[in-house]
Amino acid sequence: MTPRRTGRRPGNPDTREAILAAARTAFAERGFDATSIRVIATAAGVDPALVHHYFGSKDQLFRATVDIPVDPAALLPAVLAGTPDEVGERLVRLFLGVWDSPTGAAAVALLRSATNNEWTARLMREFLVTQVLRRVLDHLDVAPDELPLRGSLVASQMIGLAMMRYVIRLEPVASADPETLVAALGPTVQRYLTGDLG
Predict the structure, then answer these.
(1) What is the pLDDT of residue 148?
(2) Is the pLDDT of residue 145 over 60?
(3) What share of the chain is helix, strand, coil (3-state, %, to 5)?
């Protein structure tokens, strides 16, 4: 007699991939905010409960479509704790900590792909705006009409840093001590977040 297996039954990889494919398309075409679990489930031909079963929340599903190995919701509270006038330094420090770690390889691969593939670029843009920048800027006392420009400026600084340090490997930025970069770039990011843009 064969012993009964215990625990959750393994999922069907075809179903999981169908959900991921539908999610990538929906997030890239509609954006994160306008995409619902129901829309994704309908496109994948499954029940919405199955999407939750495989991926949990919409945020978790979105991270899976972008293939980011870190959860900004878990990391950003450390950036937002403390005085608002040092958020820029803490954000650069966190960014370097993630990209310099073993999980940073996936971020580098995504960045390389986004430069050659519009689909990936859309997903990366949505990820930056909804999962990172919005969470930081919503925590700060920033005029709502300034949010898009401030967020774009911060993204330009951070993605520019990633390109120079991890893709192009421009020296001495590529091998610089992280704290040297935090000291140099933190004030610029802080100005983009809360300072005078005029």
Answers:
(1) 93
(2) yes
(3) 75, 0, 25
